[in-house]
Amino acid sequence: MTAQISAHGRIVADVTTRTTANGKEMAMARLAVNLPCNNADEGQATYWLGVVAFGKQAEALAKHSKGDMISVAGNMQLNQWTGQDGVKKEQAQVIADSVISAKTVRPSGRKATPHAPKPQSNVLPEYENYPFNDEPEF
Q1: Helices (H), the chain
Q2: Lowest-confidence pick of 3-12, 45-54, 56-65, 121-130
Q3: Which element (helix H / strand E) includes 44?
Q4: CA 26, CA 8: separation in Å to the nearest integer?
Q5: pLDDT score of 108
Q6: CA–CA separation, 60 vs 99, rounded Å?
Q7: Taking the C-alpha atoms of 112, 117, 119 and 123 in order, what is their torsion angle to the nearest 10 degrees?
Q8: Which residue, among 114, 127, 74, 67, has the nearest Cα to 96 in the 3D structure?
Q9: Is the pTM value of this prediction over 0.85?
Q10: Angle at 116 between CA 110 and CA 122, to 5 degrees
Q11: Which pLDDT tens digit goes with each residue over 79-120?
């Protein structure tokens, strides 16, 4: 049984590339993914996800660098090892079937500023101040 995952996040270190013993291109990166979390100060927590890609997807991943936003999809796997300190460790990673750039570029070719204005609300005026409750009732 495999677990499929789709994630959208920011690359936190430069992508590393290598060629496998079979001559296949391989790229690896670490992704910071923001997840909703009720206990966190800002309502979200960062999840660190490893990304491994082969072939054409490795080429696509290798075009990115630290700070770039990407979306990945593929099979999730859990790596387990014993660290130099003797402590058992584990790290989730996705074997990417799909790597999609989420870079934002303006028509002029310059990257967009991170403080772009928020889009206007599409909520009808009569519901603008309606107290929606996002918490599920059990």
Answers
A1: 55-62
A2: 121-130
A3: strand 44-54
A4: 20
A5: 54
A6: 6
A7: 160
A8: 74
A9: no
A10: 130
A11: 898 989 999 999 889 999 999 988 665 555 555 555 555 555
